[in-house]
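[job 4417] fold queue: 2 targets
>>> target A
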Amino acid sequence: MLKSVVAFALATVQDTPTVDWGKLFASDLEAAEQITLDNHPAAIDEADKASFLDTLKRAMIEGRARTAIIEGPLGYSSAMAAFSATFRDNHFKTASTPQFRAVDLGTETGSRWPGFVAAWHDDLFTIIESEVPQVEVGGTISQCDGRPATVWVRDTIFAYTPADPANPSNWSLFAPNLFNQVKNPAIGTPEVCNIVSSTGTTTEVALDWQPAPDDIWQRLESAKFGAAAEISLKEVEPGIWWIQLGTFHFQNAKRQEHMDTLLSDLAENSAELIRARAIVFDLTGNQGGNSIWARRVLETVYGKRYVEALAYGPEVYVDWRVTDGTIAAMEGYREVGIKRGDDRYVAFTSRTIEGLERAQAAGKQWFSTRSTDVETAAEPLRVQSPVKSRSIILTDGRCASACLDFMDMALGVEGITHAGYTTSADSNYMDVRGIDLPSGYAMLTMPMKVFRNRPRASGEYYTPSISYTGDDWSLEQRVEWVIDIVGNDHH
C-alpha cells in the first residue's frame, strides 16, 4: 500500500516493439473510468458524488494528455500511478498485475540510488547512511538543482502516489524515496544537491546514480519508521506489558497462529494486566487488515461489554454498493474465513452476502446495515473498565484502515494516551476488491462500502498527545521512551 509508484514500476517484463504502450494505456484509462462509474460507491453517493466525479473528470483529462508521450512499460506504469494519485485514497488505486511483472524492462529497470539514504525531518533531508565520501551522515539537504526539497518531493513522489501530502507523516514515509528511484520517463532525478554538514559547511555534490543494493528497502525502513512490530505480548519491565500489533492482516495459517497465540497470552495474563503499571499497544507498522481482530484484542484486554461501549453506536452504519462483483468478492472472503475456521468472520460475510442479494433482487443500489446491524454495535453501554492500568497506544504514519478502526475504539478507553507519530488517514470508502483492466497489465483496487456518520471524518488523522521527536524508532528505543514516560508520569 505504501510503495505504490515503486511497486508498479519495479516489474520485470519482456518489452516487445509490437506493444504500443501509449495506445494500451489509453484503452485501459477509458475502461478504468467506466469501471469506476459502475462500481465505486462514491459515483452514486449523493454526499460525495459531485466532488468525486469532478476528480474523476480531472484524472481523465490529465491521463488523456499523457497518452501521446507514453513510451514503454515504465511510461505506462507511471501514467497509471499518476491516475491513482489524483484521488488521494489508498483504498482506490491502480496496481500492477502478474502479467506486467513478467515484462522485461531492459537495462533501465531496477531501483537506483545516489549512494546514500536520507530521512525527512522539518522540511529537509537528513543523511542517515552514506557510501559517498563527500556526503557525511548527519548532513542535511534543503535543495537540489536550485529547487527546494519540498518541491522535489511534491513533483516526483506525491504526484505518483495516493498518499495525501497534507498529512505530515506521509512526508516521513514517502520523501526518502526521492533518493531511491525507478526510472520514470515523466520526471527527472536530482543531479546536484546542496549538502550542509554538521558544522554548517555547504557543499555542492553531483549525484552519481547507480543500481541500488539488494537490501535497499531494508535500508529505507530506517529512514522512515523502521520495521513493523511483531504480534506478541511481553513484560518489558516489571509492571509494563507490551502488546505488539504490527498487523491485523491474517490471511494465512502462520499469521493466524500468531494472533491466536497473542489472544491466548492476553487471556492467561489478564490478572497481571488489570494491576499493571502500564499496558502498551504498539501499532508500529500496522497498515490495517481486518478490524474484527482489532476489536478482539481490545475485548480480551478490557472485556466484551466495555468494548461494546467504545464501539460505534447505531447511528454509525455502512452502505454497500450492490454489484455482482461485490457479491462475488464477499463470497471469496467467506471462503477464506471457512478455510481458517473463523466463525465470526464467516457469519459477518454470510450476513453481508444475504443482504446484498436481497437488495439486488429488489433492484436497489445499496445494501444498508442501518436496519440489519451487520457490523454496527448495540446501543452504547455505560460500563466501567475492569482495567485500571495506564494504557498507551504507539503509532507511526503507517496506521491506516483497520488500525484506525482500532484507534477509534481504543481512544475511548479511560485515561489512554496516544504517543508516537501522526497516523495515516482513510476516506469513508473501504473494503476493497480487485478489478483487472482490459490489457491485463494493471488492476483497480475498488472500495465496496461507505461509512455513514463515522465520528472520524474522511481524511482525518490522529495526532498523538505525546509526539516522538527522536530519529530512532526501533523497538528498543520505543521501549526505553515509554518506560521514561511511565516513570515520569503521575497519571
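>>> target B
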Amino acid sequence: MFIEFITIEITNDGLHMYAFDASQVLFLDVNIKKTFFSDFYLKEQVRFIMKVDMLDKCFTNVKTVESIVFKYEEDKLALLFHRSGGYTSHYQVPEMILQIAEKVVPPEFKFENEVLFQSYLLQEVIQELKSFHDNNLSVKISHEALLLEANDNLVKSSISLYNGKTRDFYIIGTAAFDIEFKNSYLLKMDKVLRKLAVKECLVQFGKDLPLSMIFETHPTCTFQLFLAPMI
C-alpha cells in the first residue's frame, strides 16, 4: 500500500479514515456512514492512528467473510470475522496515538471538469502507462477529449479518449487546460481499483489543482484520493 499510517475517526456520523503518503503528494479520504453498519454503538468519539501493514494482516483472506464486527476498546481495535465455514477469527491491532476526535474537513476544490470512467477502462489506460514508471504524465483536457502523454526521453506515449465516442467514457465541463502529474502515483491506482472492485470512477480536474478520484463502493461508503500536481 502507498500509505504507512492512517487516522481513524469514529464519530456519531460513522467512520472517517484519512492519510497522506510519505511524500505528502497523495491524500486518501474514506467516509463510511453509520447507516452502512447493521449495528452502530458509540460511547465516546475517538481519533487514533494505526499502521496500515498491521491492518492489512487482518484482511489477507476476505473471500469467506460473511460479516465483520469492529470494536474499539482499551486502546486497541478489535476485528471479529464471521466466516462462511461456520468459524470465526479474531484480531487485535494496537493504536499508535489516541486523541479525542476533532472534526476533520477534507479539502474542498472547485473542479472545472469531471470525467466518468468505467473501472475496466481506467485500468486499461493505467496498464499502458506502466512502462513509464516515475516519468511525468502530461494531462490535456477539454470538453471534446482527454489526452494523456508520457515520455521517457526515448519513447513517447499518447493516449486519447473522446467524449461521446470512447465507450463508457464521459466528460462533464467545458474548460480546456494542461496539467502534469507524477506517473508513478497514477500507477498505484491500479491496485486500489482491484482491491475495491468498483465499477466506475469519477475523476475531477482543475487547473493547478490536485487530481481527485472518487470511488463509491456502496451508497453509504465513498473513497476519495487527491493527487497533487507537479509544480
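[job 4417] complete. Note on B: The chain is about 15% helix and 50% strand.
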